[in-house]
Design goal:
The structure holds two protein chains of two kinds.
Chain A (H helix, E strand, L loop, with lengths): L1 H15 L8 H12 L5 H12 L8 H40 L3 H29 L3 H16 L4 H14 L4
Helix pairs in contact in A: 1-4
Chain B lengths: L13 H14 L4 H15 L5 H10 L6 H44 L6 H26 L3 H16 L4 H22 L1
Chain lengths: 174, 189
């Protein structure tokens, strides 16, 4: 029980300082889980990162992995809830103020200015993913074909993603 | 310029929220922006639960703390059904990944092996990129079609993709640009 409380406390703290998201998190989690708390060995940490990248969830799912090692299923549950508690609470707070503050002129202008920048960030995400994962002509053919399917047909993207995953498995992409 | 703000979002049931976000959480491999593109497709384009502006604002707020995919889910849930909707959307989105990681952790700490699923991910990566690009094109048509807004979008892209400027910094700068533009317009009137 004391172990789970400790887990909760540490992951709550990580959840609070987790600005910027994604890859900022890896060095932070490494320092806390491997160097300070000795919850995971270096190899376990890296394997945990690989496992959490297998899921649709964010990289912070690494908390689930560390929690599982610390205290089994309930450790995993407690760690997951705690690391996501701060950002969820903040989002609920912002969402609850959103409609009201939108009526203020300055806020509205600020939000209008944000919109085109969001478009840029979406393309930047695609670009960054492409830079690290598109290797040969095979990948570019898949990219072009799936672009056409997603842009011009009503086929559900989930079906397309899972279909490509099966293609990758069967053809032993490496 | 008076903007009409409608408060009457369609009444979506909690069950619909849970089901939709569970499905997204179960099949949205690729994470991050791929999840956001999926949420946009399902909730904005297909079901029309919320508008394009609201959705993109939610995505922007989500950059502040923690993973923005989860935060966008929370925002949409809250927009539809208040706090309960937000928490439910977040929990439903995380649940499939949680179960998957827990199962994989069990196997890992027992057999010390990471499953060979890498080739599946490598196959789906190009699709994920295509999905994000399609979402980006749709957003650009609506929100970055003018000369000025397209320039802001291009600058944001370059800052983030080429110079590694954090998303939050990019958004705050763009917001200041918006305030400045509003001020100029106000003065002209």
């Amino acid at each position: 029980m004391a172990g789970i409380l400790k887990l909760c406390w540490v992951f709550l703290k990580i959840g609070v300082i987790f600005f910027g998201g994604g890859y900022v998190l890896i060095p932070l989690l490494h320092r806390i889980m491997v160097d300070q708390m000795h919850w995971l060995s270096m190899k376990e940490f890296l394997d945990g990162v690989a496992l959490s990248q297998l899921t649709p969830g964010p990289l912070a799912m690494l908390a689930t992995f560390a929690g599982y090692k610390g205290a089994g299923f309930f450790g995993a549950l407690a760690a997951t809830v705690c690391i996501f508690l701060p950002c969820t609470a903040l989002m609920l707070f912002i969402s609850s103020r959103y409609e009201r503050f939108r009526r203020v002129d300055a806020v509205n202008h600020f939000l209008d200015g944000i919109l085109p920048a969001v478009v840029g960030l979406v393309f930047a995400a695609a670009f960054n993913l492409g830079r690290t994962s598109l290797a040969g002509p095979r990948d570019f053919i898949l990219l072009g074909a799936s672009f056409l399917v997603l842009q011009f047909t009503a086929i559900a993207p989930m079906a397309v993603i899972l279909g490509a995953a099966v293609v990758g498995l069967l053809m032993h992409f490496s | 310029m008076e903007k009409e703000i409608t408060m009457d979002a369609p009444r979506v049931t909690l069950l619909q929220i849970a089901g939709t976000f569970f499905m997204i959480g179960a099949t949205g491999f690729g994470g991050g922006m791929a999840i956001v593109a999926l949420i946009e497709r399902r909730c904005v384009l297909e079901k029309k639960w919320l508008g394009h502006d609201e959705f993109m604002h939610g995505l922007a707020f989500g950059q502040i703390l923690g993973p923005f995919s989860l935060n966008t889910a929370t925002f949409v849930g809250y927009y539809l059904r208040g706090s309960l909707g937000g928490i439910l959307a977040a929990a439903s989105f995380i649940a499939p990944s949680f179960l998957l990681i827990t199962g994989l952790s069990y196997l890992y700490f027992r057999f010390n092996e990471v499953p060979e699923l890498k080739s599946a991910l490598l196959g789906s990566n190009p699709v994920v990129i295509a999905l994000i690009v399609v979402a980006g094109i749709g957003m650009a048509r609506r929100k970055a079609a003018g000369l000025e807004t397209a320039a802001v979008a291009a600058a944001a892209f370059a800052a983030s993709a080429l110079f590694g400027v954090s998303a939050l910094t990019v958004l705050v700068l763009a917001g200041c640009w918006g305030i400045w533009k509003g001020w100029i317009a106000g003065r002209a009137r």
